[in-house]
Amino acid sequence: MKRYRNLHGHSGVAAYEYGDGFIRIRFVNGDAYEYTDEATGREHVANMQKLAQAGLGLATYVSRFAHDAYARKL
Predict the structure, then answer these.
(1) CA-CA distance, 20 to 65, in Å (whole number)?
(2) Which 8-state DSSP code applies to residue 50?
(3) What band does 6 get if pLDDT is binned at 50, 70 and 90?
(4) Of 31, 26, 30, 29, nearest to 58 (Cα)?
(5) Taking the domains of the chain in order of start, what are their residue ranges?
(6) Binning pLDDT at 50, 70 and 90, where does residue 9 land?
């Protein structure tokens, strides 16, 4: 996984990785989840991928729009 840039310095996201149709996110507490187009929705996965690249807003987005819509806990 790639370390999350965390531009504001107080994100709950530690790292991420993504590919076609999925994103995996590891949080600072050690929990990791996989979000997929099928489970979470294509638009949400695409938005999370963009936020992960930007290093800003990913934890907030997950808590607002995708919290329990993960495909699996890793």
Answers:
(1) 20
(2) H
(3) confident
(4) 26
(5) 2-73
(6) confident
What is the sign of the dihedral through the CA atoms of 38, 48, 17 and 31?
negative
Rounding to the nearest 10 degrees, give the CA dihedral for residues 35, 15, 62, 24: 0
The reported pTM is 0.92
Ramachandran bin of 57, using left for φ above 0, alpha for ψ from -120 to 50, beta for the remaining angles? left
Q: What is the pLDDT of residues 15-47, one digit of tens each?
A: 999 999 999 999 999 999 999 999 999 999 999
